[in-house]
Amino acid sequence: MKRTVYIVTLGCPKNQVDSELMMGMLVEQGHELVLDPEAADVLVVNTCSFIEAAKVESIDTILELARLKEATRKRLIVAGCLSQRYAEELQRELPEVDGFVGTGRLSAITAAVNAPLRCGRPLVYVGAGHSLAELERRRVMSGSAFSAYLKISEGCSRRCSFCIIPAVRGRHESRPLEALLAESKSLARQGVVELNLVAQDLTAYGHDRRDGGLADLLRALVRIKGIRWIRLLYVYPQRITDDLLDVIAGEEKICRYIDMPLQHINDRVLRAMRRERSAESLRRLVARIKRRVPGVVLRTSLIVGFPGETEAEFGELVEFVREGTIDHVGVFRYSREEGTLAAELPDQVPGAVKMLRYRTIMEVQAGVAAARNAGRVGTTEEVLVCELGCDGRSIGRTRGQAPEIDGHIVLQGDAAPGDIANARIVGAKTYDLRGVLVRGGRVDMAVGSL
Description:
The chain is α/β, with parallel strands linked by helices. Helices cover 33% and strands 22% of the residues. It has three domains: 4-125, 3-Layer(aba) Sandwich (Rossmann fold), CATH 3.40.50.12160; 132-374, pyruvate-formate lyase- activating enzyme (Alpha-Beta Horseshoe), CATH 3.80.30.20; 380-449, CATH 2.40.50.140.
């Protein structure tokens, strides 16, 4: 029986790829995807359980759709990380849910949707494997038509003390190079011009295979006709080699942008996090990256309120951010996750203290970002036009702005979504920019209209 299906995706871009895989498999079965939950026979929530806030958002979304289900004859399926991690508990706590599909058995979404709308008991599909082999069935329907995420591996074999991902997603496994090239060529034929590479650990790519590492993958991707920008998201510090940096610096298609989560800068905290690097080595790494990749834009994520973090240790982190060596900074308040080593550490930091430290870091980073953006006024940068606005304006991103996380540039001039063109930057806010598109060396429209 063909059904209409509504899917809502929570969490990171890797979850978005998982949702697109489920979409592709459902469309193959003849089901119709809809954007309105009211019009759906089946409601699917692809959940995240990385930190407490993500779990709360997931549960709230499930309960919201459960209320809709009560008023209509619909089926409710919970997929993704929350199901993989808590399927047994969720069956007891959420009797409204008709099925659970874990990250290890995403292909079971078709069975969950095909089942009778009222089968008397929840269906549970949770496994320990990966769904990498099925990714060729992915259907890119979320996001834009010209920018896509490319998941190059699954899982993580590291053991950071604060992180639950290895327990949820399993050990690291790279996708075959041939599969990634085939998917990328398919995306290019569909009009995608920007590939954003994602994984739990990009730099681990290929270490479990014999067909090359991340640098080799990049060399192959740049040869694909139609792909014009390639961006690296989540590059683990330990395996950033000179070879990788030289490829980034030497290939025009690769954005000089590196998302490299450092988490902290204090030696003791780094050891407690099991991040395997000292503050000195991280500073040397940042300097090496900037030396080998001139003009590189760096993004990092930091954790405040890790167990035992003192005011002095937090002060070191504040000073590191204030130095302005990192362009974009995302900050997480430490989340105590059961099953992790850090959850058992003494001296857990109170929530109010974590919030204060979060606000302090963000305030310092806002000053850094505002100053850096102000310094870009008067320069010309390549931009990807993402959407049309009103009054002749459009929204775009520079090579130094990743989708959804780094701000945008408001553009004046004639362009269509998916266009890549030069823009003169004429104004700046804390995180966003204003620009005028430049064609053939001439500005399209008067700056004064911005």
